[in-house]
Structures are given as structure tokens and as C-alpha cells.
Write a structure and sequence with these properties.
Blueprint: E1 16-27, E2 30-41, E3 45-49, H1 56-63, E4 73-81, E5 84-85, H2 93-99, E6 100-103, H3 115-126, H4 131-144, H5 148-151, H6 164-176, E7 182-186, H7 194-207, E8 212-216, H8 220-226, E9 229-234, E10 237-243, H9 244-249, H10 254-260
Parallel strand pairs: 3-8, 3-9, 6-7, 7-8
Antiparallel strand pairs: 1-2, 1-4, 4-5, 9-10
Length: 265
């Protein structure tokens, strides 16, 4: 008797790249983020939107344990990467920040270092290697950040000679050099002009095949342009999460509709 052929499987949801379970983040006694559970799907761009002060940046800083760098803060709940709780008692925080890289609102290259040394900084922190061994990974990170052609002739020049948009892509290259699983970006284009912003957006669309991307943005048009999934936060809580097209055309919560239509925020 032939083996029974199983019915076609329903389309599976994208595998989570990084997940939150009942996450609450405090500044002193104030809970800036409250009881949030969500999955950021692997190899997709998830945008986090919401009005100023809603907890977007706090949430994303919890993903690589940057939140705890502020005095008087604490986190409850779990952040899971590959099934491992990044807040577990035996977890190396340095290893967390290698696996979950971060790019901040304003470009922050190391001011006294060259373009090459900026990208190599994380690699040198990981292990003691010579410049010859660093060349390959540094060059590849610059290519991944779409910056190689612009800086190849001047790798030894100071990083601060680059334009603002180039500096931000340099910071992305620095994060990519250590091969993270997740890349966090906290309003990475807010200080950039429209041309530089477009280059960053094009770069992120290319990078999502390599890394899971979580993007905090105040720019709803940016979220609509490049995000696969969008999360809307309000007053420290997750209001709604869904495919970006749905979130901007037919959200399930009236508060989301009011925000994306410009009624508040």
C-alpha cells in the first residue's frame, strides 16, 4: 500500500529573527515600555513607528542590552535570539552586541580614526589580528554598505572627512564587519538630506537578505517605502503589528488609523 501523501502545507509564517516576550523596560519606577511580545521576522525589515516619547527607541535599545547602560534602568521579560534569552544570567553582553548590531540617529564614527580603522574596530575588539588579516573583512563590509567605490582610494583618511550620509553608511559598515544576525537602526536618516536618505534606504533593502533589520523611524513615508512589517507603538505599548501595506491602508485599530492619517502625532 503506498504511503499516504500529506496534504499541502499552509504557507508558514516567516521565521523570527529576534523575539520579545512580555518585555517591560523601566527608567527608575517609570515603565517606558510595557509588556510587549512580538517577533521580528528574519531577513525582513520591521519598522517601529509612533509619536515621540512612545517608547520606540527604548524598545530597540533593549534588543541589544543598550538600555541597561543608563543608570537606574532595568528590564523584565525576555529577548530571544535563536532560542537563547539575551538577558540570561550567563550571557556575555559583548557577544550580544556583536550578534545584534546598532546604528544610531546621528552618525558617530570614531573621530580620531581612519575610515579603515573605524570599520576594523569591532573586529579588533573580538580578537588580536594584523592589518593584513583585517583587510578582507573591512573591504567586504564597505562593499556591503555600498561605500567601497567612494572610499577605496582614501581608506587611511580620517572618517570625519566623509559627508554625513557617507559617515552613516560607514557606521553601518562598522556594524556589519562583525557579521551580526540582527541590525538595529534608530532613526538613522533623521539628520540626513533626501539624497543621502535614499541611499540608506536602498542599502537597507539590499541588506535584508543578509541580516534581520529593525528600523525605528519617525518618517511614515520611509516605513511605507521599505518596511515589510510595521509595528505601531503608543504610550509604551504595542498597539498593532502587521504587514506594512495593511498597516497603512486598512489598520485594525482606530488609533493606528488616526496616527498614520495624521490626526495626531
Amino acid at each position: 500500500m503506498p504511503a499516504e501523501v500529506p496534504p499541502p502545507a499552509a504557507e508558514e509564517a516567516p521565521q523570527a529573527g529576534i523575539s520579545l516576550r512580555n518585555l517591560t523596560a523601566y527608567y527608575g519606577e517609570l515603565a517606558a515600555v510595557r509588556d510587549i511580545s512580538l517577533d521580528f521576522p528574519a531577513n525582513r525589515i520591521t519598522a517601529i513607528i509612533g509619536p515621540s516619547g512612545c517608547g520606540k527607541s527604548t524598545l530597540v535599545r533593549c534588543l541589544n542590552r543598550m538600555h541597561e547602560e543608563v543608570s537606574g534602568t532595568r528590564v523584565e521579560g525576555s529577548v530571544l535570539l535563536g532560542g537563547t534569552d539575551l538577558y540570561g544570567p550567563d550571557i556575555d553582553v559583548v557577544a550580544v552586541r556583536r550578534a545584534v548590531g546598532m546604528v544610531f540617529q546621528k552618525p558617530n564614527p570614531f573621530p580620531t580614526q581612519s575610515i579603515f580603522d573605524n570599520v576594523a574596530a569591532g573586529l579588533r575588539y573580538q580578537r588580536s589580528v594584523g592589518r593584513r588579516e583585517l583587510a578582507g573583512p573591512v573591504h567586504q563590509a564597505l562593499r556591503s554598505a555600498a561605500l567601497w567605490a567612494e572610499v577605496k582610494p582614501r581608506l587611511e583618511r580620517p572618517a570625519l572627512e566623509l559627508s554625513g550620509g557617507q559617515q552613516q553608511r560607514l557606521c553601518i559598515a562598522r556594524a556589519l564587519a562583525v557579521e551580526p544576525e540582527v541590525l538595529l537602526l534608530d532613526e538613522p536618516c533623521s539628520a540626513l538630506d533626501p539624497v543621502a536618505t535614499l541611499k540608506i534606504e536602498e542599502l537597507l533593502l539590499d541588506l535584508k537578505d543578509q541580516v534581520t533589520i529593525v528600523l525605528v523611524t519617525h518618517n511614515m513615508q520611509q516605513a511605507a517605502r521599505i518596511a515589510d512589517v510595521t509595528a505601531f507603538m503608543l504610550n509604551g505599548e504595542l498597539v498593532e503589528l502587521g504587514e506594512t501595506d495593511m498597516m497603512f491602508t486598512s489598520p485594525g485599530d482606530r488609533r493606528t488609523e488616526d496616527y498614520v492619517s495624521g490626526r495626531f502625532g
